[in-house]
Amino acid sequence: xxxxxxxxxTGSNSGLGFGIAARLxxxxxxxxxxxxxxxxxxxxxxxxxxxxxxxxxxxxxFPERKIRLEYVLLDLSDMESVEAAALExxxxxxxxxxxxxxxxxxxxxxxxxxxxxxxTLMNPVKALTYPTYYKEAMGRTSKDSMGYIFxxxxxxxxxxxxxxxxxxxxxxxxxxxxxxxLVAKKESLNFDDIQCLHxxxxxxxxxxxxxxxxxxxIESGLPYQQYVVHPGLCTTNMYETFLGFIVVxxxxxxxxxxxxxxxxxxxxxxxxxxSYLWIAIHSHKEDENIKWGSATTMFGKEKIxxxxxxxxxxxxxxxxxxYMQNLYxxxxxxxxxx
Length: 338
Ligand SMILES: NC(=O)c1ccc[n+]([C@@H]2O[C@H](COP(=O)([O-])OP(=O)(O)OC[C@H]3O[C@@H](n4cnc5c(N)ncnc54)[C@H](OP(=O)(O)O)[C@@H]3O)[C@@H](O)[C@H]2O)c1
What we know:
The protein is an alpha/beta fold. Helices cover 43% and strands 16% of the residues. The protein has a single domain, classed as NAD(P)-binding Rossmann-like Domain (Rossmann fold, 3-Layer(aba) Sandwich), CATH 3.40.50.720. It has helices at residues 15-27, 48-61, 79-92, 113-122, 124-127, 148-166, 202-220, 237-243, 247-259, 269-272, 274-282, 314-334, and strands spanning 5-10, 39-45, 68-73, 98-101, 108-111, 134-136, 175-179, 225-230, 291-296, 302-307.
């Protein structure tokens, strides 16, 4: 039975998550012709309709692949859903080999247009790699009364992987892949407001927190392997939901940056998923210490590059770890988990 492999991808009905599923499907082939289910990809989505549609689109892309595609419903902004998903995964799968914690969201409300135009004219690549002109919604909370972006991007996944570990679905050969971002700037996280309930940049704050937690966790020792990876910049639903048809111009601008030499404008979710596939195939323990990113040459040849992480102090790691561990215990108690 050990030749069977299982990959879980959260938020896989669109964008990067769908791209990761497609790349795994493209790469892995059944090892035994008459044993079609040596590789199982488990998608997680927020609704049955989205999950079934994603499975159908993946099968259409690779009709010849004998790989099992299944799904589990998961809404990270609802802790009951996260706990239910952990139990369902435990009941259905003996282990997970790859866990892509990809789902994520932002709550874009607007753009400071004058600032955006000025920054783009001054330095287009910088302006379109590290944007400072987005207006995010402030103070949005989930039904669990947590910061919505914090819970969707960080805590929901933290709870899920910690529970899966307790339930013995993860092991020393499991590779967990966290989804970071280039915008994880040091100043975006306020340690007195870790859920970013009062800050202007809940998305950036969540991604900086994710980086800090990752390095804190690997330093303290984990019973599984864990990597932090980002997709560069690709135009997905995250952009489309807010920009509508203007997303076409964003895509053109991203291509333009690539032609100007930016390695990070991956543009398509397929190229953006490259480093995620690379982690599954090539990564070693020492790669845990690096934040990897999907990148591209000017001509669209994919590659993987290390990404700089702004200084993380030992005290910052300690604060983040303690905060998450306490919140995890609090939620286990609230959900009556023994
Ligand atoms: N696109 C980029 O350039 C970029 C850059 C850096 C990092 N990222 C990261 O890449 C990841 C994927 O984003 P994407 O660009 O592929 O965007 P996307 O197309 O919007 O995909 C996001 C996925 O996450 C799911 N999701 C959102 N909130 C969720 C929640 N509360 N519970 C469960 N699932 C949830 C979405 O489900 P629904 O369809 O139901 O909303 C969707 O499946 C995110 O973590 C994002 O921060 C993206």
